[in-house]
Structure to design on (289 residues):
């Protein structure tokens, strides 16, 4: 397990750098693919600039919501893009705050406790972080992050982050992670370690972890942009790619789907965030390469 606050902050930064460097990851920015307004270098800048905030999280110098807002505010000084790591910060900050745990399961349990120990001011801070990052989220009838009424509701009803995340729609898998023990991230970290054991290749392990998560969970960002049917189609095609990989044992089988999604501008960004938290848990548990 992690030995110091500095280790925890380094592991968080490293998890973001490793994820964005993984290639090919169908539909997402990597070393070979950029979007017009979101580029590989933006993720590098955001990752490196987040180190001081992660260090503050490890030392518990502030609460979760304020740390998420600070992460967006401070990293935005180093790039001109929007929505680079909003989801990743939501996942990583409570995990980093729990670095001094006996094992991974205890770490994730403590991370949920950090979410529970927030107050309504943390919820408002996250809402402001969302607006600052210009992130895209699922459309909902109530408590939309895009609604001007949400801040008033959170304040008047003293809704903390945990209670707010419990109100999220079923498809919001980041909210589910924050309230349900980071179960997807734990599974992802175990897959990652198994793939690395099998192939002794960091990039391949990350690519396989990403596509396995993509094959198991509908991406909320895809749903928000293109609808649930497209999200199901992406999930199905990820499964097909993994089956093809089983036969050919060649990473190139993911390039066709990667190209298709890039051309259609379909970006499974939430699965990328969950890949980051999976990598963090693997590093926290002692993964080295």
């Amino acid at each position: 397990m992690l030995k110091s606050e500095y280790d925890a902050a380094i592991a968080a930064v490293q998890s973001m750098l490793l994820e964005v460097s993984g290639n090919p990851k169908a539909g997402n920015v990597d070393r070979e693919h950029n979007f017009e307004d979101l580029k590989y270098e933006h993720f590098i800048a955001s990752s490196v600039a987040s180190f001081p905030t992660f260090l503050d999280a490890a030392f518990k110098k502030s609460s979760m919501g304020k740390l998420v807002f600070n992460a967006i505010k401070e990293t935005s000084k180093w790039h001109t893009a929007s929505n680079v790591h909003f989801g990743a910060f939501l996942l990583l900050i409570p995990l980093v705050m729990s670095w001094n745990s006996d094992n991974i399961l205890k770490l994730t349990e403590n991370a949920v406790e950090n979410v529970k120990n927030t107050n309504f001011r943390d919820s408002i801070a996250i809402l402001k972080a969302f607006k600052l990052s210009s992130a895209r989220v699922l459309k909902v009838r109530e408590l939309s992050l895009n609604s001007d009424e949400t801040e008033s509701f959170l304040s008047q009803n003293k809704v903390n982050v945990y209670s707010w995340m419990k109100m999220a729609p079923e498809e919001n898998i980041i909210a589910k992670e924050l309230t349900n023990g980071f179960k997807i991230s734990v599974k992802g970290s175990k897959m990652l370690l198994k793939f690395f054991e099998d192939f002794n290749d960091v990039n391949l392990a990350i690519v396989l972890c990403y596509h396995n998560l993509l094959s198991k969970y509908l991406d909320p960002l895809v749903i928000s942009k293109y609808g649930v049917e497209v999200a199901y189609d992406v999930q199905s095609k990820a499964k097909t790619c993994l089956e093809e990989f089983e036969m050919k044992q060649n990473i190139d089988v993911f390039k066709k789907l990667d190209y298709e999604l890039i051309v259609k501008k379909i970006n499974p960004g939430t699965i990328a965030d969950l890949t980051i938290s999976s990598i963090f848990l693997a590093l926290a548990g002692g993964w080295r390469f």
About this structure: The radius of gyration is 18 Å. The chain is about 65% helix and 0% strand.
